[in-house]
Amino acid sequence: VYAEAQSGLANRTQNAFVEQNIAAGESRNFSVTYFTTDGTAETNYTIKLVVEPVSGSGDSITQYTGVYVKNLGTDSIKTPQLMVSSYSFGGSFVQAGDEFRLDLGLRNTSSAHTLRNVKVTLDSGDGTFIPVQSSNSFFIDRIDKNGSANHTMYLSTKPDAEQKTTSVNISMSYEDTEGNAFTATDVISIPVMQDTRLLVDDIIAPPEIYVGMPNGVSVDFYNMGRTKLNNLRINAEGNFDTMESNSYYVGNMEAGTSDSYDFSFIPRETGLMTGKVIFTYEDASGDQQTYEKEFEFQIMEMPVWNEEPWPPEEMPTEGGGIPWLPIGIAAALAVAAAIFFIRRHRKKKINKEMEINE
Q1: d(CA 204, CA 277)
Q2: Which long-range contacts does 323-329 make (Cβ < 8 Å, 24+ apart)?
């Protein structure tokens, strides 16, 4: 969200704001202050208001408003105004825990006064930004009439800084050539982003896996970061077949929470079966991220038993023959486990869809 005034009005405060989330039915209020300059005329000035997505995708909204300036006196000419005319920090946001370069541009809007002994102090209030190998103040000897000055300083962002747009107060004190003292204050905004940290447990294979037999596996995952994972979707793929879709839409996963993912599979052949569970989500800046957890399962051939019945008078010798009963039990357990995971996976999908619809 930003406001842009017509030439003749100078911005006195922060004019750009970033909101990560505005829920349905909620509202936000923003305040921007302008002042007149030496060249301001007695007329109506247009101010453009723009709302657009940070990621660049989606629709933007533009509206216009106006303010009428009248009865201009001479006070604005006698009082020299110093303002932050520009600033940049190397991108659209800074990363928590990283250092960054801040470039500030200052402008003397007066056409009648040269400013000298300019002292500028930066303060983020909660200590989100800390100067690197310098203080939070700097000094400029003079700024000529209608002149500008630039200054660069390096700041470090706290590793545990909250993910939000942080305001930095800029206090300025200065004098004119006659020694009259003045002060001014500006505000700039710097969005802070936290790294995403998705932790996924190891994928453990079932005790026995036979070719052609359905099986199921569950894996736990955790959002260990300080920021939300948006539109999280999970799927499993590999050299196996499935009886239904393995896709699971989690939605938005809050920081510090955990969940589990269940998927079923039917091995196609004996030997090593490889696959991976794919996590896809969007970070706070709207960029899509992908994390893959690979797994390997050893697949066995399903034993084939002799259909000829044993002679009634003969009993199988001790240690001879094939233990069909344990094999049958193992196969039954594998099928039961697969059915359990399929039903559990289906139930989680239904519950998640109901949460989204609500």
Answers
A1: 13
A2: 327/303
> Bridge-partner residues for 188, per DSSP?
168
Domain enclosing residue 218, as ranges: 198-309+317-357
Nearest-5° angle of CA 254, CA 124, CA 22? 35
Do 243 and 187 share a domain, yes or no? no
Exposed / middle / buried, residue 5 (Cβ in 10 Å: 0-12, 13-18, 19+): middle
Question: 199 has which bridge partners?
Answer: 222
Cβ distance 253 to 225 under 8 Å?
A: no
CA-closest candidate to residue 91, choices 289, 291, 287, 288: 287
Same domain, 185 and 44: yes
CA dist., res. 338 & res. 122, Å (int): 61
CA 307 to the chain's CA centroid: 62
CA separation for the pair 221, 228 (Å, rounded): 14
Q: What is the mean pLDDT of residues 134-146?
A: 94
Task: Identify the DSSP state of 111.
Answer: S
pLDDT digits (tens, 9 = 90+) for 57-95: 677 888 888 887 776 555 444 578 899 999 999 988 999
CATH code where residue 152 lies: 2.60.40.10
C-alpha to C-alpha distance for 231 and 251, rounded to whole angstroms: 4
Report how far apart the first and last C-alpha atoms of the chain are (Å, whole number).
29
Domain count of the fold of the chain: 2
CA distances (Å), 237 to each of 206, 270, 273, 328, in order?
17, 17, 11, 29
